[in-house]
Amino acid sequence: MVQSNGNLECHFQIPKIKFTQLFINGEFVDSVSGNTFETIDPRNEEVIARIAEGEKADIDLAVKAAREAFDNGPWPRLSPLERRNIMLKFADLIIENAEEIAALDSMDAGKLFAAGKNTDIPSAAQFMRYYAGAADKIHGTTLKMSRDIQGYTLLEPIGVVGHIIPWNFPTQMFVMKVGPALAAGCTMVVKPAEQTPLSALYYAQLAKQAGVPDGVINVVTGFGSTAGAALCSHMDVDKISFTGSTEVGRLVMQAAALSNLKPVSLELGGKSPFIVFDDVDVEKVAPLALIGILYNKGEVCVAGSRLFIQEGIYDKFLKKLEEITKTWVVGDPFDPNSHQGPQVDKKQFERVLSYIEHGKREGATLLTGGNALDRKGYFIEPTIFTGVEDHMIIAKEEIFGPVLSVMKFKTVEEVIKRANCTQYGLAAGVMTNNLNIANTVSRSIRVGVIWINCYFAFDPDCPYGGYKSDGFERDLGM
């Protein structure tokens, strides 16, 4: 495949799919049933490969392997230094294979190839190295007891962990879940999203190459209602970590409660406010607001999907947004000229379009977009609605696509109240040059992560997670 970008010519051969089976106890195996399912390329709606469809019987085998590896295997018993060195080798292998992994995520999820190769994959390796460095720094506390006795706490690996990861960032989410569990000495079963199974299987064999013992990382591809449900309700799983929709998060908690009361970490949906005060430089902030909703075609849990603009710069800001959006290229994610690829699958494509129709019916005004592209694949125009009111569906519900709701506000007090008027509480952006406003607003909005004069500013050392219907516990950080 040869693509050009002005004077830059990109030569890239789309890789063959190497791994389509389940990965259990260090081996690629067929599902017990022998069933498979199709993974679809959202660029052209064509079948990429048939993937083994894991179900309850396969989850049982994977959990059994993980339990044996935890109870009797070497991984929890290795010195932290040995675990660290294996994880560092894993990170090196991720970088060595960055181009192929990025291509898998582009084919499977419609993600921009250049962004995957230059951002997603390197950051995944960075996450793995961060947790490799944490492996020998997991300490307890010596207690000053009130009686004449000695006491101390000891942090121990919890055991077998079930990771259920989403389709929007299949690479980063795999490493964000697996990395800390490896560092702690846990073993695990990973259930990737059925839309994006390819990179998780690829990572499984990289882990084995790095020296992770058999049974420590198991990957069972399949559907949430079967494989995912079996993992959540399994009596021999000690913890579940789930990133996905709020609706499914409730089912995960229910299954955990009805089985062995395993603890659950949830990172769920979002409807994050991006608040712009009238003292900012419009030329600098407008592009950031647009990236806040259009990055990864809007399929981001922390997307700034509610844009609040103070009335003093409202018209000027909208004009700049419209101007930038006209230059935004929606196209093949392997094309270096593209800014936005297709939505992940037909279901998500139709869901986004249905929300756009809701916005039209409710009386919001289309500033840009509003349509699917007239071509094969799941491509949608960048869509900006103005005149949006807080009660409208497009302002209340997570769309998870390139759809922005723009609203005008007058005062600090007003925008705080409106920003908090949501079931979600994951992230927010506050754009101002006034330190008092920045402090007041950031301490008043009930969300887990607040970015001031920046957005999507993730770092391995900075934990993130949400309030309210966005779940609890945190990813990243120590």
Automatic annotation (TrEMBL):
Q: Where is the signal peptide?
A: none
- Give the GO molecular function terms: aldehyde dehydrogenase [NAD(P)+] activity
**Superkingdom as given in the UniProt entry:** Eukaryota
Question: One Pfam family, short name please?
Answer: Aldedh
Q: Keywords, A to Z?
A: NAD, Oxidoreductase
Similarity remark: Belongs to the aldehyde dehydrogenase family.
- Subunit details for this protein? Homotetramer.
Q: What is this protein called?
A: Aldehyde dehydrogenase family 2 member C4
Write down the species: Nicotiana tabacum (Common tobacco)
